[in-house]
Amino acid sequence: MSALVTTARAGLDRGRIELKQTFTTAQDLWAYLFPAVILTVVMVFMRGATVPGMAFSLSSRTLPGVLGMNIAFGGLVNVAQALTTEREDGTLLRAKAIPNGMLGYLIGKIIQVSGMSLIGCVLVLIPGVFVTDGLDFGVGAWLTLAWVIVLGFLGTMPIGAILGSLISSPRAMGIVMLPIMGLVAISGIFYPGSALPGWLQVIGQFFPIYWLGLGMRSALLPDAAAAAEIGHSWRHLETVAALGAWAVLGLVVAPIVLRKMARRESGSAVAARREKALQRMPR
How many whole angstroms separate alpha carbon 89 and alpha carbon 274? Predict the structure, then answer.
């Protein structure tokens, strides 16, 4: 037990330090600010549009969905990218070499990625409040946001870890990005999913991005806005069931895949990946 407590503390410290370091590099600061600026501009241009069949602003509907999308991107893309990058540079191999090192590494990565995702949400939410109206920020809204965010991380981070374990290198992240962008397009983030063809609605509801967007909208939008949703309801029970199912699937499969990936890590494997990376560099 004492060893696990020590590992957990080390992981928390690691995550805190890595999160703090993101504020000291231009690349990470750009990753914070660029999406927030782009999404704010999008919402500004959408202010004049309304939800079909309603007088409610489309930009106000979009803002909560964007927050859900940020959580999904953090869990799916950022976790996968971190694992592929740090497997290639030898970070995972070093973590594997110490007792409970992989557990501490994963705890640290959870802290870092969740912190970055929440900061990204805040950077979108603050200007979004000034360019939208009709949002609810009461106690009930914050409670709903809390459980949706927790379930969202549980439902996406293990899947991101699985993807990161299976992808061979950071340069292959396009294999993940393209399908995720396609899912965003059919998940009702920027436009009501009820306006899409029925078969696309079914596909979108299989994945956590849709349910994260729906959960965020249910927290911040008035009840009348549910009329634009699939089923004309916020469907809280279905949201819990869908995100919970993804969480169970990920938490069962991810440890198996991560253990197999860790067993394959060796000094020669890291050296071979570095050699391939050097060969791709222009001379």
Answer: 7
Domain range for 270 is 2-280
Mean pLDDT of 254-270: 76
pLDDT for res 281: 54
Q: Of 33, 16, 220, 248, which Cα lies nearest the Cα of 136?
A: 220
> Can you tell me the distance from the alpha carbon of 267 to that of 271, in angstroms, rounded to the nearest whole number?
6
Question: Domain count of the chain?
Answer: 1
Q: What is the DSSP string of the chain?
A: -HHHHHHHHHHHHHHHHHHHHTTS-HHHHHHHHHHHHHHHHHHHHTTT-B-TTSSSBHHHHHHHHHHHHHHHHIIIIIHHHHHHHHHHTTHHHHHHTSTTHHHHHHHHHHHHHHHHHHHHHHHHHHHHHHH------SHHHHHHHHHHHHHHHHHHHHHHHHHHHH---GGGTHHHHHHHHHHHHTTTSSS-GGGS-HHHHHHHTTSHHHHHHHHHHHHHS-GGGGGGSGGGS--HHHHHHHHHHHHHHHHHHHHHHHHHHHHH--HHHHHHHHHHHHHHS--
Q: Are 16 and 113 in contact (CB under 8 A)?
A: no
pTM, to two decimals:
0.89
